[in-house]
Amino acid sequence: MPTATMTSKGQITIPKTVREALGLFDGTRVDFEILPDGSALLRAKRQPLESIIGAFSADGIHVTVAQMDPGSLDA
C-alpha cells in the first residue's frame, strides 16, 4: 500500500502509482470526504467537457497543408 508523509504546511505528495491509477495530473482538483468511521475518501473532481469550451483559442500560428509536409523545411 502506497504511503505519504505530510509536511509542516499540511502538504502531501500523492504517490505516482496512486496518481496514475486515479488519472490525476497537474491542476486536477481533489475532493475529500470524511467518512463516519474516521477514514477519508479522496475523489478526483472531474470537470464536464462543456466547462472547457472557449478555453482554447483558435488564434495562433496558421500553416498551410504544404507547410505541414515533413519534407518542407521553409515552414
Describe the SSE topology.
Elements lengths: L15 H7 L6 E6 L5 E6 L19 H4 L7
Antiparallel strand pairs: 1-2
Descriptive overview:
There is one protein chain. By secondary structure, the chain is an alpha+beta fold. It has a domain at about 1-45: Pemi-like Protein 1, Chain: D, CATH 2.10.260. The chain contains two helices and two strands. The chain has helices spanning about 15-20, 65-70, and strands at about 30-35, 40-45. Strands 1-2 form a two-stranded antiparallel ribbon. A hairpin with a 5-residue loop joins strand 1 (about 30-35) and strand 2 (about 40-45). The radius of gyration is 21 Å and the shape is elongated. The chain starts with 15 loop residues before the first helix and ends in a 7-residue tail after the last helix.
Question: What keyword list fits this structure?
Answer:
75 residues, alpha+beta, Pemi-like Protein 1, Chain: D
Short précis:
This protein is α+β, with helices and mostly antiparallel strands. The protein has a domain at 1-47: Ribbon (Pemi-like Protein 1, Chain: D).
